[in-house]
Amino acid sequence: METMLRNLFQALGKSHSANRMAKKYGLRFGAARFVAGESIRQAIEAVRKLNEDGRMATLDHLGEFVYSEEEALQSADMCVQTLDAIAQAGVVSNLSLKMTSLGLDSSRELCMRNMRRILDRAREHGNFVRIDMEDYAHCQTSLDIYRELRRDYDNVGIVLQAYLFRTRQDIQDMNGLRANLRLVKGAYKESIEVAYASKKDVDENYKAMIREHMENGNYAAVASHDEAVVSFTKQFAAERGIASDRFEFQMLYGICEEMQKRLVQEGYRVRVYVPYGIDWFGYFMRRLAERPANVWFVLKNLFK
Ligand code: FDA
């Protein structure tokens, strides 16, 4: 049953027509638990609230299935506007983005131009941009683009996923770049040819990645709600004398709030990933696929 629901949510998240329909009808089915709103103003308000108790943020303007140049330029505009809004409001937040929303699927060159424009604006504001990692099909291109950008920008980071076999090698290859990496388990449905299928293998690989990246003196963003991973990171940092400003924990908006607050109280850096925008459906479906138990939450909201 759980696998069936997981597959269903993953398929719905990828469906163009479901995404298109959802855009028209506004945040529904309890998606507001995971998505901060549809406008920049609502997103900035959500960040302000997080900042009040010491949590930092990373804002993500949601955008899926961008193919035309015009849509990609609009997406880049939204990223620039988000950076401006962060600076104007004086809130503590950086920016996360997906390169497919900047035209990666239609033209690498277009995506690159958009990335440079966004990174230039972030640099003007003294801010940082994180490239989210998408499915396996985009992994190599994303890493190549990251390497190219890293030559000119020190305010850009990327994400590596523990479920991929290739990631341990990627971590080693990145070491020379002094890369600021967000390390995650991985959110997409991948084939057993490229990814670990069992939770145990993913978790083991995840810990090995954290160890290797932090041990090499690199900044790590450990993005997980898994108590075991969080405890492992804390203990590893303490044992190796890694200062608490050399890493941060990241969690998603609306998930494990108590743990987020507790970590801040314990003196750790915590950043919350705050998605916003009208294109909320794909993101919402990925959150449901991660935890099909959330379906009860959706059903409750259907009848509200
Ligand atoms: P795990 O799935 O083992 O969950 C541990 C516990 O966390 C669960 O038992 C539950 O209590 C809670 N939990 C987890 N997910 C939940 C949910 N959806 N709803 C309610 N509770 C939940 N992935 C990717 O492929 N590319 C990326 O760029 C990113 N970026 C990213 C940023 C940030 C800040 C986070 C936290 C995560 C990502 N991810 C991601 C997603 C990541 O790959 C992974 O799918 C989720 O974080 C779930 O895995 P956990 O590590 O939380 O552990």
TrEMBL record:
<feature type="binding site">
    <location>
        <position position="98"/>
    </location>
    <ligand>
        <name>substrate</name>
    </ligand>
</feature>
<comment type="pathway">
    <text>Amino-acid degradation; L-proline degradation into L-glutamate; L-glutamate from L-proline: step 1/2.</text>
</comment>
<feature type="binding site">
    <location>
        <begin position="224"/>
        <end position="225"/>
    </location>
    <ligand>
        <name>FAD</name>
    </ligand>
</feature>
<feature type="binding site">
    <location>
        <position position="287"/>
    </location>
    <ligand>
        <name>substrate</name>
    </ligand>
</feature>
<feature type="binding site">
    <location>
        <position position="161"/>
    </location>
    <ligand>
        <name>FAD</name>
    </ligand>
</feature>
<dbReference type="GO" id="GO:0004657">
    <property type="term" value="F:proline dehydrogenase activity"/>
</dbReference>
<dbReference type="GO" id="GO:0010133">
    <property type="term" value="P:L-proline catabolic process to L-glutamate"/>
</dbReference>
<keyword id="KW-0547">Nucleotide-binding</keyword>
<protein>
    <recommendedName>
        <fullName>proline dehydrogenase</fullName>
        <ecNumber>1.5.5.2</ecNumber>
    </recommendedName>
</protein>
<keyword id="KW-0642">Proline metabolism</keyword>
<dbReference type="InterPro" id="IPR029041">
    <property type="entry name" value="FAD-linked_oxidoreductase-like"/>
</dbReference>
<feature type="domain" description="Proline dehydrogenase">
    <location>
        <begin position="44"/>
        <end position="298"/>
    </location>
</feature>
<feature type="binding site">
    <location>
        <begin position="185"/>
        <end position="187"/>
    </location>
    <ligand>
        <name>FAD</name>
    </ligand>
</feature>
<dbReference type="InterPro" id="IPR002872">
    <property type="entry name" value="Proline_DH_dom"/>
</dbReference>
<dbReference type="InterPro" id="IPR015659">
    <property type="entry name" value="Proline_oxidase"/>
</dbReference>
<dbReference type="GO" id="GO:0000166">
    <property type="term" value="F:nucleotide binding"/>
</dbReference>
<feature type="binding site">
    <location>
        <position position="286"/>
    </location>
    <ligand>
        <name>substrate</name>
    </ligand>
</feature>
<keyword id="KW-0285">Flavoprotein</keyword>
<dbReference type="InterPro" id="IPR008219">
    <property type="entry name" value="PRODH_bac_arc"/>
</dbReference>
<dbReference type="Pfam" id="PF01619">
    <property type="entry name" value="Pro_dh"/>
</dbReference>
<feature type="binding site">
    <location>
        <position position="199"/>
    </location>
    <ligand>
        <name>FAD</name>
    </ligand>
</feature>
<feature type="binding site">
    <location>
        <position position="133"/>
    </location>
    <ligand>
        <name>FAD</name>
    </ligand>
</feature>
<keyword id="KW-0274">FAD</keyword>
<keyword id="KW-0560">Oxidoreductase</keyword>
